[in-house]
Amino acid sequence: MPDTTDAQFCQHADEHIRMSKRQLAQFPARGEVSASMLHGTARFNARVSATGFDTQLQMAAARADRIEYSVAQYRQMPDPSIDNYRRNFDRHMATAQNR
After folding, report:
1. Going by C-beta distance under 8 Å and a sequence separation of 6 or more, which residues neighbour residue 27?
2. In whole angstroms, what is the distance from residue 25 CA to residue 15 CA?
3. Which of these, 66, 41, 1, lies nearest to 58 by C-alpha position?
4. How confident is the model at residue 77 (pLDDT cuts 50, 70, 90)?
5. What is the DSSP string of 25-39?
6. Which CATH number fits domain 7-97: 1.10.287.3020, 3.30.420.10, 3.10.20.10, 1.25.40.10?
7. How do residues 8-48 score in pLDDT, each as one tens digit?
């Protein structure tokens, strides 16, 4: 996983979050917006993964490893964010209600 303290990494993540917040403002189904972001991420990561292979057979042989890698990376991502929201719940929720 990239160093999450890297400014460019955080800017890229913030862009995705802003896009999802705009979608929520127009279509307030949180679960659907969240699921579509995960779906888009999975599709994009499949494309990124495919660029590492020369043939379909190579990609097929590495399928399980690539899926496990993606799942392992995702498992690491929510912890800091959930902890941040838990520690600062009132502040984050007040900000969310003012939008």
Report:
1. 33
2. 15
3. 66
4. confident
5. HHS--HHHHHHHHHH
6. 1.10.287.3020
7. 999 999 999 999 999 999 998 999 999 999 999 999 999 99
